[in-house]
Amino acid sequence: MALPGGGLIRLVHSATPASDIPECAEQIAAMPTPVLLIDGQGLVRDVNSAGETLLNLGRGAIVGRGVEAMIGHPLTAMPLDAPFAAYDLEVVLPVGRHQRVDLMVGPISDRTGWRVLTVHALPPAHLAGRRGDREGGTLSAIGAAAMLAHEIKNPLSGIRGAAQLLEASVDDDTRDLTRLIRDEVDRVAALIDRMEGFTDTRQLELEPQNIHALLGHAREVALRGFARDLVIREIYDPSLPAVLGHRDSLIQILINLIKNAAEAMKDQGNVIELRTAYRHGMSVHLRGGDGKRSLPIEVCVVDEGPGAPEEIVDHMFEPFVTSKRSGGGLGLALVAKLVADQGGIIEYAREGNPPRTTFRLLLPRAMQA
């Protein structure tokens, strides 16, 4: 049976008698899988701690609300009196966050219409693909940047020096041309400087960092400069542990993302949101099959702009890809490189109603000594 969002229903047999459910309350509460208890009216009657984490809400904000408000799906297309599973279903979690999940539902025989719902979040498949594609693109960009910096930057300085010498011995009309030469040389040199960011392959020294302090610093820089006419809201999880990262690189990442958001809202919107949250279960496969790295620290930069054109979405973290007339297409590519250098990943999405642009960083946490 097909479901809205692309999921498929397959009826399954329950291995646990419904009568055992009340006796397993403590075990269910300790389960790492999100579990919700749904009554006959579709209201959430109980939730375990993993469910609170998935929904990013406390128990008091979940219990008593409709299941559709929690996962964006009313479950009305699913049978009430038989266990079933819905695979690869897209649901909408609170705050408009889209997530593909597997749903497992079992009825409670002595309570008509009551069901136990478990939610198994699926890792975003496009993240792994994009990350792999970006790694290859980034390595190519490193070689290209090193070559261009060596072959172009030195001749540019000679051209600029010659233009300065000519400027002192020509008439006013010609002087305008020499100034144009200098300005264009400076513009190309600045582009080369940005490309040189790709040539630094030294391993970063990662240390515990207070991500909220770094966000505050980046926000202050933005509000005193390119975002002085915008509102930057902070929506933070104050209990977030320290992130494992490189301070200067993280600040550069955040400033670049905030600047990108500000530029995206020149014709639409004036509010940027900075969000943090802790996400259990987020991880990335390590190279060589050496297991996974947990990435539970989530940092989002959200803007009200129109988003990237559809044709560049799958390539927006690659060098020289941009939708801006005056852009060089290196800002997001450099951000992707710096994030990867710290063992994290970055995701672009359009979320919410009305939709807004979200750049989501997933970073490792610093372990307690």
Describe the model:
The structure is a single chain. With 369 residues, the chain is α+β, with helices and mostly antiparallel strands. The protein folds into three domains: 8-122, Beta-Lactamase (2-Layer Sandwich), CATH 3.30.450; 126-198; 204-363, Heat Shock Protein 90 (2-Layer Sandwich), CATH 3.30.565. It contains nine helices and 15 strands. The strands form four sheets. A six-stranded antiparallel beta sheet has the order 1-4-5-6-2-3. A five-stranded mixed beta sheet has the order 8-10-13-15-14. Strand 11 and strand 12 (292-294) form a beta hairpin. Helix 5 runs antiparallel to helix 6 (172-195), helix 7 crosses helix 8 and helix 8 (247-264) packs antiparallel against helix 9. The chain is elongated. The two termini are 51 Å apart.
Number of helices: 9
Share in β-strands = 15-25%
The first-to-last residue Cα distance is 51 Å
Domains, number: 3
Q: State the helical fraction.
A: 25-40%
Nearest-angstrom radius of gyration? 26 Å
User: What do we call the CATH homologous superfamily of the largest domain?
Assistant: Histidine kinase-like ATPase, C-terminal domain
Instruction: Give the averaged pLDDT, no decimals.
Output: 76
What name is given to the CATH topology of the largest domain?
Heat Shock Protein 90
Mind telling me which CATH architecture of the largest domain this is?
2-Layer Sandwich
Number of strands: 15
Task: Give the H and E element order.
Answer: EHEEHHHEEEHHEHEEHEEEEHEE
Which stretches of 5+ consecutive residues score pLDDT under 50?
Answer: 1-23, 125-136
Question: What quaternary form is this?
Answer: single chain
Outline, from the CA principal axes? elongated
